[in-house]
Every structure is written in structure tokens, then in C-alpha cells.
Automatic annotation (TrEMBL):
Keywords: Hydrolase, Metal-binding, Zinc. Zn(2+) binds at H89, C115, C118. Residues 8-163 form the CMP/dCMP-type deaminase domain. One of its GO terms (molecular function) is zinc ion binding. This is CMP deaminase. Gene3D superfamilies: Cytidine Deaminase, domain 2. PROSITE patterns: CYT_DCMP_DEAMINASES_1, CYT_DCMP_DEAMINASES_2. Belongs to the cytidine and deoxycytidylate deaminase family. SUPFAM superfamilies: Cytidine deaminase-like. It comes from Paenibacillus macerans (Bacillus macerans).
Length: 172
């Protein structure tokens, strides 16, 4: 990028979300979220254990196993899924630590497409836009449909490249 050229607002705020994600101590995924009204940054959050509670790096992940029916090549299959229940998602923390009045008409920039639970919470939060970078295919279809139904602008920054110092390799 030319040093005289400024980043566009989407890149600027997504860069901040990625920087915020570096605070996460989750061994599975680092997620950051920022709340923006107009061009004003109103709050930041990342995923992790509740304040004052040992996090996954200290106490290990608290894994819950679930089974889900998926359709592959026209056939139903049972797939075992694992998720950590110790971690509060970045979007949930953002909602916990910002005021409703600030969320009205605002945008949320989040490094990862929200899961179904976070999407439900964001849909009732007063925000009018969600911008994300990395897809979350498991819930994408139903989240996209709900956002359309709610009239919330929902878009992915597909060509975005996060700052190299914010990319953290985590377990899959």
C-alpha cells in the first residue's frame, strides 16, 4: 500500500478487530469484535473465560460433545462436534460491555462470522450491520436468512487480509 494512501473504513475497523483478537487465550480460535457507530469506535471485545476465572490456557478447554445430522452427497450422516463451553464469545462480551443506546444503529465488525447463538443476540441488540471476515459454514445459511429477515446488513470481507502480526495459529 502506498504510504500516502489511507485504509478504507472496513479495513481499518477489521484490522482493529483482529488486533483485539490477540488478547484471546483460547487455544481453538481467537476472535475479536468491535462496535462502531458511524466512524466512531464504541467498544471492543474478544473471546475468553469470564473475568477472574481460569481460562483455557490455564485450566484446559471444557469440551462438550454433540452429535449433528449433516447431509453429504444426498445422504444423512451423524457427525460428532466438539465445542468449548468455558469461553464466552467475542460478540457476547461486546454486548455485555456496551450500552444498548450505543448499539442502536451501529455496526459490529467481527473477525469470524457469528454462530447461531451470537447471531440471535446481535439480532436483538439494536445493531443494523454485521461485517465479518472468516466464514463459519456450520451456521451460515440460517444466520444469513435471519439477518435478511431482520433487515440487518450482513456482509463478508472476502478479499480482506489481516495484519500479519494478528494472525495466530490455533488448533482446529
Amino acid at each position: 500500500m502506498n504510504p500516502d494512501q489511507r485504509k478504507d473504513w472496513d479495513t481499518y475497523f477489521m484490522d482493529i478487530a483482529y488486533m483485539v483478537s490477540t488478547r484471546s487465550r483460547c487455544s481453538r480460535r481467537h476472535v475479536g469484535a468491535v462496535l462502531v457507530q458511524g466512524k466512531k469506535l464504541l467498544g471492543t471485545a474478544y473471546n475468553g473465560a469470564p473475568s477472574g476465572v481460569p481460562d483455557c490456557s490455564e485450566a484446559g478447554c471444557m469440551i462438550a460433545e454433540e452429535y449433528e445430522v449433516v447431509i453429504e452427497n444426498g445422504e444423512e450422516k451423524m457427525v460428532k462436534k466438539q465445542r468449548c463451553v468455558r469461553t464466552i464469545h467475542a460478540e457476547q462480551n461486546l454486548l455485555l460491555f456496551t450500552d444498548r443506546i450505543d448499539r442502536e444503529g451501529s455496526s459490529v465488525y467481527v473477525t469470524d462470522e457469528p454462530c447461531w447463538t451470537c447471531a440471535n443476540m446481535l439480532a436483538n441488540s439494536g445493531i443494523t450491520e454485521i461485517v465479518f471476515h472468516r466464514p463459519y459454514p456450520k451456521d451460515s445459511g440460517k444466520v444469513t436468512a435471519m439477518m435478511k429477515q431482520k433487515g440487518i446488513r450482513f456482509r463478508r470481507l472476502e478479499s480482506y487480509q489481516p495484519p500479519p502480526e494478528t494472525v495466530v495459529r490455533v488448533e482446529e
